[in-house]
Amino acid sequence: MQPLDTLLHLGLEEMGITLSSATQAKLLDFIALLDKWNRAFNLTAVRDPRQMLSHHIFDSLAILPFVKGPRVLDIGSGAGLPGIPLALARPELEFVLLDANAKKTRFMLQAAGTLGLGNVEVVQARVEKYRPERKFDTLIARAFAGIAEILAASAHLGNPHSEFLAMKGVFPQSELD
């Protein structure tokens, strides 16, 4: 069985993503934090670090080519996914990780601090009530709600040129129709 760092390196290579060894180490540190906190706080249903790599890290980084800045909002970030992996990969962008759940925002604050993410702000609020001073260039939602509901709840957070990235497990043809 290959070590997690080797699997990370091979997966990134297969995805065509180049990250420094320091950034790769921080992604592994994030998995370790998620694994540790998940035992006490049930942040994600995925329990195995190898599955966290494929189901959370690679899944998060799959949208990397589409993320535009300078400001990015991760709506319903939960355990910091996809926001934290993206913030590690794109340190020049500002990320706001938004979630209404206090235990999840505490975890994200801890993870951002431990990983030294100066480009991450964690906000505990419902998306409908969140009123930032500046709008966002990219808005991301992963496993949050249906597309229509997400757009209705977050329309006030974008600018006329914002892009919305809806991360869905299966192509949402019925939602798009």
- Percentage of residues in DSSP E strands: 15-25%
Biggest sheet descriptor = 5 strands, parallel
The helical percent reads 40-55%
How many beta-strand runs?
5
Gross morphology is globular
Strand numbers in spatial order across the main sheet: 3-2-1-4-5
How far is it from the N-terminal to the C-terminal residue, by CA? Answer: 44 Å
Query: What is the mean pLDDT?
Result: 91
Gyration radius over CA: 16 Å
Task: Describe what you observe in this structure.
With 177 residues, the chain is of the alpha/beta class. Helices cover 44% and strands 19% of the residues. It is built from seven helices and five strands; from the N terminus they run αααβαβαββαβα. The chain has helices at residues 4-15, 21-41, 49-61, 83-89, 102-114, 147-154, 173-176; strands at 71-75, 94-99, 120-124, 136-142, 158-167. It has a five-stranded parallel beta sheet with strand order 3-2-1-4-5, with helices on both faces. Helix 1 (4-15) packs parallel to helix 3 (49-61), helix 2 (21-41) crosses helix 3 and helix 2 packs antiparallel against helix 4 (83-89). The protein is globular and about 45 Å long. The mean pLDDT is 91.
